[in-house]
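Hey, resending since the last one bounced:
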Amino acid sequence: MAAAGISFLTATSALSTEITVWCWDPNFNGAAMAEAAARYSEANPDVTVNIVELAKTDVEQKLQTQLSSGTSEGLPDIVLIEDYGAQKYLQSFPGAFEPLSEKIDYSNFAQYKVDLATLDGETYSLPFDSGVTGLFYRSDILAEAGFTADDLTDIDWDRFIEIGKQVKAKTGHPMLALDLNDAGAIRILLQSAGSWYFDENGSPNLAANPAFKSVLETYAKILTTSDIWKPVSGWNEYTGAFTSGETAAVFTGVWMTGTIKAANMSGKWAVAPLPKLAGFEGGGHASNLGGSSWYVLSEGQSKDAAVDFLATVWGKDVDFYQKILVGQGAFATYLPAREGVAYAATDDYFGGQAVWRDFSDWVAAIPGVNYGLFTNEVDAAVVVQLPELAKGGSVDEAIAAIDAQVRQQIN
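The structure tokens again:
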């Protein structure tokens, strides 16, 4: 009987499959993955999904260490990678990640997300959340200054600055809170122009990049118009400025929606398209800040099951995306999800605006760019120059200094 018992357990173990996932943020990424796992297990009861939740830096450090060691032992089957770091992993560790081009219908996903996980013709990610951007604004404050939603639609940054001056003069509220130690605004403006810090080959694209010059000129205009913004330092001061009602607007990613809604100002907020660069051909109103995607490790113990799991739920299930939008505020890049009930719903907090529908329209228009290997290094060089630009310093000199610092660091 003992031998029979061992045999039975061995057979059961052989039939069961465990998919291990590494991710960060249990209330967002972890919760969305848990919902996906629950849905998959209904039709695949022999498969369990083990979600290992770590700090973001720990996920990155453990993945880097394991891949650098050349051993697959201890690696997960699926890992979450921030989009800005995707190319660094794909290029630094060829063969480490499973190509999914033949398993996922990428025509159903926002093209910019597909592009950033593509290398040498193969795409490696299951695209997850978007950082699609918009201009969140206090509709009551703008109305006090005489502006409606139409006045903020299809405008450029020059017009935004003029509106900001009038809002400040008539209401006393500056439009923006800006942290000169953060380059997020530069990232947003640059991708809206369909450009990035690097060209398609991954080389720095700064000194001779007209889009980068237009972005710095635009941001310098904002910074030198001191009555439309207030300086802040750090995340708490930044978010506190607009959640307290001190400032009237913020341009950022869709993931800021939850923070804005926590401010208990229902009916006083709205969202407009991002202003576009003035006078720059090819620029638009759609951009991105942040976002992550799921990757399958080629040497994972349950690689095939992991691919099927991602393809079945994350790659096809429209209802799943409605659930995580409502439950976690996870705004996905799976385009068919736009036809679901949750994405079409209006939101009283935003004055009855169908904000998810608007964001889903904008996400489809985000330009694809090559984030390259050294986005953080360029950010560091950019923020060094922002205080001087705020004083009216030369944009050309700032670009030359940024280019020199970046080339010194990465060569």
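Residues 1-14 have pLDDT under 50 and may be disordered.

Sorry for the duplicate.
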